[in-house]
């Protein structure tokens, strides 16, 4: 029996390889700014979500080292069993301040946050309205909840409006969306979503993984649209992207956060993050709050790259952020382009189905990219345009 299973696995892996859908790990030998070494070859990394370069900031590194000296490495237990430290509270206070909410709680990752918060936010009689391009962790969180799910067309307010109006429900209605869509780089129409939720008495749960530290002068997508604080808005975000560390958080009212602490399984049944991670996240967020030069550099770099793409007529999405996908007709075309990039020492891998429908090279821009790095990327775009198109 088990032998058959392994034969079956090998057959499935073989098929993935045939279809160019096989994935493999790319571990780096070293990292220095946005320069990485893989298998001894140097690349400029254009696939990192470290938008502000904070993962390598001297103050952020120093904070982690100090915390290890004081508290040691691992947390040793769940947060409810003294696995956290006073640093956790300090970080949560900062996050609530950053997002303008009463309270916040840190979770172990963005994936953990969505898969443990959504099932306890939504109850059995509720209905969740979910954008069709929401992140996999949201999709899984909805699957784990007992609520009914209705998917609306990507960022389509008319479709959502219609669906939310024609659906009657004994419980509550919850709208869930990424703020910045991680594979397309476009921004959800949060103002309209806010208005619909207010009118329909619905809860709005936003995943600001790619908005935090990037939009709204670092405060995130809610601030980007200058929307007011409301009890019905739940703001989730991560510490793993522009914050440059690891972990996630959710911000909301006191009672909501208290409920999550008392019910979210991924919070209760998992060891608290190491104190070093919490300490470095505190240092990062202080930098995001106090120093806007990194954010300015990020946007300067982003605008340069988007402008080059427009001038060259390369195919991209409706991106409004440092996530800049180059779209291709086929996986083969995308892989050929990726090879051209590689030959110029640019690391920008192909994202393929089923992660996305249209194969793409997902370029992400960082404040840590130097002027020369950006020029090299634009040179690669030029080279790509000179390639003869296959019929
Ligand atoms: C990356 C991401 C997550 C997962 O966060 P991790 O901290 O990496 O687990 C969740 N939601 C969105 C929109 C993301 O882009």
TrEMBL record:
<dbReference type="InterPro" id="IPR004723">
    <property type="entry name" value="AONS_Archaea/Proteobacteria"/>
</dbReference>
<dbReference type="InterPro" id="IPR001917">
    <property type="entry name" value="Aminotrans_II_pyridoxalP_BS"/>
</dbReference>
<keyword id="KW-0093">Biotin biosynthesis</keyword>
<dbReference type="InterPro" id="IPR050087">
    <property type="entry name" value="AON_synthase_class-II"/>
</dbReference>
<dbReference type="GO" id="GO:0009102">
    <property type="term" value="P:biotin biosynthetic process"/>
</dbReference>
<keyword id="KW-0663">Pyridoxal phosphate</keyword>
<dbReference type="GO" id="GO:0030170">
    <property type="term" value="F:pyridoxal phosphate binding"/>
</dbReference>
<comment type="subunit">
    <text>Homodimer.</text>
</comment>
<protein>
    <recommendedName>
        <fullName>8-amino-7-ketopelargonate synthase</fullName>
        <ecNumber>2.3.1.47</ecNumber>
    </recommendedName>
</protein>
<feature type="domain" description="Aminotransferase class I/classII large">
    <location>
        <begin position="42"/>
        <end position="381"/>
    </location>
</feature>
<comment type="pathway">
    <text>Cofactor biosynthesis; biotin biosynthesis.</text>
</comment>
<dbReference type="InterPro" id="IPR015422">
    <property type="entry name" value="PyrdxlP-dep_Trfase_small"/>
</dbReference>
<comment type="function">
    <text>Catalyzes the decarboxylative condensation of pimeloyl-[acyl-carrier protein] and L-alanine to produce 8-amino-7-oxononanoate (AON), [acyl-carrier protein], and carbon dioxide.</text>
</comment>
<feature type="modified residue" description="N6-(pyridoxal phosphate)lysine">
    <location>
        <position position="241"/>
    </location>
</feature>
<dbReference type="GO" id="GO:0008710">
    <property type="term" value="F:8-amino-7-oxononanoate synthase activity"/>
</dbReference>
<keyword id="KW-0808">Transferase</keyword>
<dbReference type="InterPro" id="IPR015424">
    <property type="entry name" value="PyrdxlP-dep_Trfase"/>
</dbReference>
<comment type="similarity">
    <text>Belongs to the class-II pyridoxal-phosphate-dependent aminotransferase family. BioF subfamily.</text>
</comment>
<dbReference type="InterPro" id="IPR004839">
    <property type="entry name" value="Aminotransferase_I/II_large"/>
</dbReference>
<dbReference type="InterPro" id="IPR015421">
    <property type="entry name" value="PyrdxlP-dep_Trfase_major"/>
</dbReference>
<dbReference type="Pfam" id="PF00155">
    <property type="entry name" value="Aminotran_1_2"/>
</dbReference>
């Amino acid at each position: 029996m088990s032998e058959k299973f392994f034969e079956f696995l090998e057959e499935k892996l073989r098929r993935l390889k045939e279809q160019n859908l096989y994935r493999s790990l790319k571990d780096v030998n070293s990292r220095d700014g946005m320069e990485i070494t893989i298998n001894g070859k140097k690349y400029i990394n254009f696939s990192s979500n470290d938008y502000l370069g904070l993962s390598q900031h001297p103050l952020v590194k120093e904070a982690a080292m100090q915390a290890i000296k004081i508290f040691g490495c691992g947390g040793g237990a769940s947060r409810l069993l003294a696995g956290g430290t006073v640093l956790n509270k300090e970080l949560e206070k900062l996050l609530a301040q950053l997002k303008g909410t009463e309270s916040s709680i840190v979770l172990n990752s963005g994936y953990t946050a969505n898969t443990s918060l959504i099932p306890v936010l939504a109850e059995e009689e509720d209905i969740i309205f979910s954008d069709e391009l929401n992140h996999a962790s949201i999709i899984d969180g909805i699957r784990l909840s007992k609520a009914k799910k209705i998917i609306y067309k990507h960022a389509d307010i008319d479709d959502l409006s219609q669906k939310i109006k024609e659906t009657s429900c004994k419980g509550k209605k919850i709208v869930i969306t990424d703020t910045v869509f991680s594979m397309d780089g476009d921004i959800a129409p949060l103002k309209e979503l806010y208005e619909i939720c207010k009118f329909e008495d619905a809860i709005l749960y936003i995943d600001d993984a790619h908005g935090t530290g990037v939009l709204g002068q670092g405060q995130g997508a809610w601030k980007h649209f200058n929307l007011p604080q409301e009890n019905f808005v739940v703001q989730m975000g991560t510490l793993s992207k522009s914050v440059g560390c690891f972990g996630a958080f959710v911000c909301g009212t006191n009672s909501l956060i208290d409920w999550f602490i008392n019910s979210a399984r991924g919070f209760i049944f998992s060891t608290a993050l190491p104190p070093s991670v919490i300490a470095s996240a505190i240092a990062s967020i202080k930098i995001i709050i106090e120093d806007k030069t990194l954010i300015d550099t990020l946007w300067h770099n982003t605008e340069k790259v988007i402008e080059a793409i427009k001038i060259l007529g390369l195919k991209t999405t409706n991106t409004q952020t440092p996530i800049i996908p180059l779209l291709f007709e086929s996986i083969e075309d995308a892989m050929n382009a990726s090879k051209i990039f590689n030959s110029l020492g640019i690391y920008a891998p192909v994202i393929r189905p089923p992660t996305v429908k249209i194969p793409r090279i997902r370029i992400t821009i960082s404040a840590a990219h130097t002027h020369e790095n950006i020029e090299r990327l634009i040179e690669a775009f030029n080279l790509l345009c000179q390639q003869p198109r296959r019929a």
